[in-house]
Amino acid sequence: MKLTRVLVLLGLLTSCELLEKSSQRSDAVARVGAYYLYQSDLSGLVPEGSDPDDSLEITKSYIDNWIRRHLILMEAESQLTAEQKDVSAKLEEYRQSLLQYRIENEVIAPLMDTAVDNDLILTYFKANKEQLALRRPLMRGRFVKIDRDAPRQDYLRQLMAAKGSRNAKELEEYCFQYASQFQVSDTNWLYVDDVMRGTPTDLQQDFSFGLRGQVQQRSDSTHVYLLLLRDYKGVGEAPPLSVEAQNIRSLILLQRRQEFIERYYQDLYKRSLAEKTYEIYTP
Questions:
Q1: Any residues with CB less than 8 A from the CB of 127 and at least 6 apart, and which?
Q2: Could you tell me if 114 and 252 lie in one domain?
Q3: Is residue 42 domain-shared with residue 111, that is, in the same domain?
């Protein structure tokens, strides 16, 4: 539907009919005080091929929102003092902050060396173990949740405790077929609450996290839960380096970035002083 037809319908169906059209331009569709909304302002508003009713609703909504914004603007202009309405200082402050943000991110930061070797990560890890203490327990091991009537549960327990790639593959195949939840890779450190998500809290607490290498089994009215721990670290303990390595790298880069930007500004200050780009006048 063409925009002109939408505007005709709009004039019949909305309260905008009460608004005067500009005496200066015949294509005005709405007015709030001295502010006018023209047909040209609505160009491209309605997607090509839109349903007529949808076109009307889109245009009506836009005009209603335009009226509300300008009524608020008029109210602010009438109620605020000249000092309160003067936002030029705030706008300039925002502009300066935005320009500083952009030069730091788009000009200065890309010049920084982003290589962080493993020795540097290890040094940071050793120096900050207390700050890196775990807030959530970690585990390496296996966890499987199955229905109470799932088949071959003795076989599942054997696979849980077994080592070797062949047994691991058979365990995974069993879980894909019968388990409703499982984590069977026992080489990576994972947060316990992520591994056991959805397990009733009382059952989680009933497992012995000090027991290694043995399959523990708990159950409720609908499911059986099997846990085998290879290793465990509780809250307050130092985390494994592998868990924190990426976070440490990010922290190192953040600190390096702050220092790099500060040096850039210091060099700018010194260079500008030598080139007499700026001067300080004594009162």
A1: none
A2: yes
A3: no
Structure tokens at 16: 């905008």
Query: Same domain, yes or no, for 169 and 206?
Result: yes
Residues 115 and 174 occupy one common structural domain: no
- Find the domain containing 154 and state its range: 138-233
Residue 198 has pLDDT above 90, yes or no: no
Burial of 182: CB neighbours in 10 Å, binned 0-12, 13-18, 19+ = buried
Are residues 246 and 127 part of one domain?
A: yes
Question: What CATH number did the domain enclosing 211 receive?
Answer: 3.10.50
Residues 144 and 175: beta-carbon distance below 8 Å:
yes
* Confidence bin at 12 (pLDDT 50/70/90): very low
What's the whole-number average pLDDT of the chain?
87
Q: Which residues pair with 28 in a beta bridge?
A: 38
* Stronger pLDDT, 266 or 48, i.e. the higher one: 266
Q: Are 2 and 46 in contact (CB under 8 A)?
A: no
Task: Residue 233: count other Cβ atoms within 10 Å of its Cβ.
Answer: 20
Dist. CA 247–CA 50, nearest whole Å: 49
Entry pTM: 0.66
Which tens digit of pLDDT belongs to each residue from 65-99?
Answer: 999 999 999 999 999 998 898 999 999 999 999 99
The structure tokens 């009933």 sit at 206
C-alpha separations of 20 from 8, 13, 41 in Å: 15, 16, 17
| DSSP SS3 for 94 | helix
